[in-house]
Amino acid sequence: MRVLGLDYGSKTVGVAVSDPLGLTAQRVETIWRKQENKLRRTLARVEELVAEYGVDRIVLGYPKNMNNTVGERAEKAVEFGEMLRKRTGLEVIMWDERLTTVSAERTLMEAGVRRENRKEYLDGIAAVFILQGYLDSLSV
Predict the structure, then answer these.
(1) From CA 15, how far away is CA 131, in angstroms rounded?
(2) Counting CB atoms within 10 angstroms of each CB, which of 28, 55, 62, 72 has the fewest?
(3) Is 14 exposed, middle or buried (0-12, 13-18, 19+ CB in 10 A)?
(4) Are 101 and 66 in contact (CB under 8 A)?
(5) Predicted local confidence at residue 89, as pLDDT
(6) Is 58 helix (H, G, I), strand (E, B) or coil?
(7) Is 8 helix (H, G, I), strand (E, B) or coil?
(8) Which residues 6+ apart lie within 8 Å of 91 measured at CB?
């Protein structure tokens, strides 16, 4: 069982994948796009990664507000999840991602990554946290 984890942002999608046993998450890459609504290449790249890693489901970060309400970013994530489901035919699980970007930023700071280099890794690390949270929930 391989699971793909995604952190969907306005200009990037952080990508992580589980190991074949579904125990740990590893950063794969960050997919960049020039405009928020230009998703054709992003969807095509996700589709390539699904095939490359033999993924059987996708976990997509669901950025709810801290008060548990659903805002514009969360609605866009749901729309993206629906596009992924139609394009790949796979189950897309929406996973509460509150504070994952904050945790990823803190991890990069603690690792000594320079401020100007953090953006390159931030979304991928956030995707790892999203996916690892999901994988950990399966073993409870």
Answers:
(1) 9
(2) 72
(3) buried
(4) no
(5) 96
(6) strand
(7) strand
(8) 57, 58, 85
pTM comes to 0.86
In the three-class reduction of DSSP (H, G, I as helix; E, B as strand; rest coil), residue 6 is classed as strand
β strands within the chain, DSSP E: 3-8, 12-18, 25-32, 57-62, 91-96
Residue 108: what pLDDT? 63
Structure tokens, 19:
């190991």
Rg of the Cα atoms in the chain: 14
DSSP for 12-37, please give it: EEEEEEE-TTS--EEEEEEEE-SSTT
Residue 17's Cβ-count burial label (10 Å; 0-12, 13-18, 19+) is: buried
pLDDT digits 0-9 by tens, 40-94: 999 999 999 999 999 999 999 998 767 777 778 889 999 999 999 999 999 999 9
In 10 A of CB 22, how many CB atoms? 17
Look-up of token digits 């950063």: 27
Q: Which residue has the tokens 């401020």?
A: 115
Within 23-114, residue ranges assigned H as helices are 40-53, 72-88, 100-110
